[in-house]
């Protein structure tokens, strides 16, 4: 027990001493001392303290040979503290200010990665996801031989899957509304799903979009006025045929076969 107390007391005294030294450092008028201390804190992964010192000396070194490194370290310190909004702002500032800088490639990548880190769950606004995809693609164009290419492709596909899921949420919403107050939301579901399949052809959700298209066209058919019943039933029937060809082992196989049979009876009756 006594040993634990001594260790605790020693740790507390060290912490108080460290805080006292840091406070003195903040009051030091010499920017070079602060800059060197910031580098030391950064190397020790004490990003919070490094950041305060770096931002403090920024005005003194603006336009000097240290300015570039300070800007990069500020961006990286924010990123390491998971303040991705601030990080992307400073990474962008770096790439704009130093297009030939030693950290340009890394900053361009980290700028995109900061947006990736901000990407929320699919049901929320996906502006950050779209921006990350744009920046990652720009990065690959500018640095086609980068060793980060495979990792970037994985991240981009992950983001696209989020965007696809966001579209699926909208598609399901339209389908569930159906025909409401004279508005055909089945058509909105179809258009949204078809666009999503074109936009995200590699998505794992492709079949989910496809079944909603089938169901929506079936609903359009059976809820049609007599003048449009034959045409819409034929369109829905063809959609069922396409689905069965495209997804022969689908979990929706039984459902689609039944819909196709029902539509076939309607078509036969009207022929």
Question: What does this entry look like structurally?
Answer:
With 271 residues, the chain is an all-alpha fold. Helix content is 79%, strand content 1%. It contains twelve helices and two strands, in the order ααααααααββαααα. The chain has helices spanning 2-27, 31-43, 47-61, 67-80, 84-97, 104-118, 127-142, 149-177, 185-199, 206-222, 226-246, 253-270; strands at 179-180, 183-184. A two-stranded antiparallel ribbon has the order 1-2. The longest helix has 29 residues, at 149-177. It is elongated and about 90 Å long. Mean pLDDT is 94; it is low at 8-17.
Shape: elongated
Largest sheet: 2 strands, antiparallel
Strand order of the largest sheet: 1-2
- Cα(first) to Cα(last) distance is 94 Å
Helix-strand pattern, N to C? Answer: HHHHHHHHEEHHHH
Q: Taking all residues together, what is the mean pLDDT?
A: 94
Radius of gyration: 29 Å
Q: Into which percentage range does the β-strand content fall? A: under 5%
Point out poorly predicted stretches.
8-17
Structural class: mainly alpha
**How many β-strand runs?**
2
Helix proportion: over 70%
Number of helices: 12
Outline:
By secondary structure, this protein is mainly α. The chain is built from 12 helices and 2 strands.
Q: How are the secondary structure elements laid out?
A:
Blueprint: H1 2-27, H2 31-43, H3 47-61, H4 67-80, H5 84-97, H6 104-118, H7 127-142, H8 149-177, E1 179-180, E2 183-184, H9 185-199, H10 206-222, H11 226-246, H12 253-270
């Amino acid at each position: 027990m006594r040993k634990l107390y001594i260790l605790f007391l020693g740790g507390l005294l060290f912490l108080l001493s460290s805080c006292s030294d840091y406070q003195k450092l903040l009051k030091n008028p010499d920017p070079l001392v602060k800059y060197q201390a910031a580098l030391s804190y950064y190397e020790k992964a004490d990003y919070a303290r490094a950041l305060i010192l770096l931002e403090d000396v920024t005005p003194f070194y603006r336009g000097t040979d240290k300015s570039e490194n300070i800007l990069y370290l500020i961006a990286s310190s924010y990123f390491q503290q998971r303040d991705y909004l601030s990080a992307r702002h400073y990474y962008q500032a770096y790439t704009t200010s130093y297009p030939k800088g030693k950290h340009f490639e890394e900053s361009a990548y980290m700028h995109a990665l900061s947006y990736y880190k901000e990407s929320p769950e699919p049901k929320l606004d996906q502006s950050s996801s779209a921006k990350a995809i744009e920046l990652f693609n720009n990065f690959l164009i500018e640095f086609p031989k980068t060793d980060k290419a495979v990792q970037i492709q994985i991240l981009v596909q992950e983001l696209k899957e989020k965007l696809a899921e966001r579209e699926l949420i909208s598609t399901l919403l339209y389908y569930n509304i159906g025909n409401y107050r004279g508005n055909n939301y089945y058509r909105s579901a179809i258009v949204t799903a078809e666009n999503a399949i074109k936009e995200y052809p590699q998505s794992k959700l492709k079949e989910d979009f496809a079944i909603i298209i089938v169901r929506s066209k079936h609903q359009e058919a059976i809820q049609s006025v007599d003048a449009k019943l034959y045409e819409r039933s034929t369109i829905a029937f063809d959609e069922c045929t396409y689905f069965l060809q495209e997804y022969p082992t689908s979990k929706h196989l039984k459902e689609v076969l039944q819909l196709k049979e029902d539509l076939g009876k309607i078509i036969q009756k009207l022929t």
